[in-house]
Amino acid sequence: QTSEVANDLSAGQYVVTVTDNKNCALVDSVTIVESSPENNVFPNPTNENVNVFFELEQTAIVYIDLYDSKGALVKNMYIDQAKSGENLFTFSISPLAIGSYVLKINTDDESILSEKIIKQ
User: Fold this and answer.
1) Alpha carbons 34 and 8: distance in angstroms, whole number
2) Residue 115, class by beta-carbon neighbours within 10 Å (0-12 exposed, 13-18 middle, 19+ buried)?
3) Residue 106 CA neighbour count, 13 Å, CB half
């Protein structure tokens, strides 16, 4: 969109370019998360960064792992504490080969999320 206000944008990552009357430009990226979304991974498909949103009832150690289409562990993306409430993590998947992956988020007590990611 080319305007001062962008309407009807869905959740995802956007690049914003602001240009003044002297043709000086500022470029930045913005991640839009819907208010209280369900557990999700976006944008999907993607070729660079993937955002992972999930909620926890209480603070816990979380394991965010990426598996290939055959179920083999590709990478431990994150192993550390996550806060109670809403959590948003961003990971780069640009070094990965094009294909399908499964992102899984677990705590010691439960499975939080298992979602297919497509790397373009």
Assistant:
1) 11
2) middle
3) 9
Q: Is the peptide bond before 45 cis (omega within 30 degrees of 0)?
A: yes
Q: How far apart are CA 30 and CA 27, in angstroms?
A: 10
Full-model pTM: 0.66
Mean pLDDT by runs of 10 across the 120 residues of the chain is 65 80 84 61 90 92 95 95 93 94 95 94
pLDDT at 113: 92
How many angstroms separate the Cα of 63 from the Cα of each of 32, 58, 66, 75, 80? 24, 15, 10, 11, 7
In the block, residue with structure tokens 């206000």: 5
Where do the DSSP E strands lie in the chain? 12-19, 25-32, 40-42, 49-56, 60-68, 73-82, 85-92, 99-106, 111-119
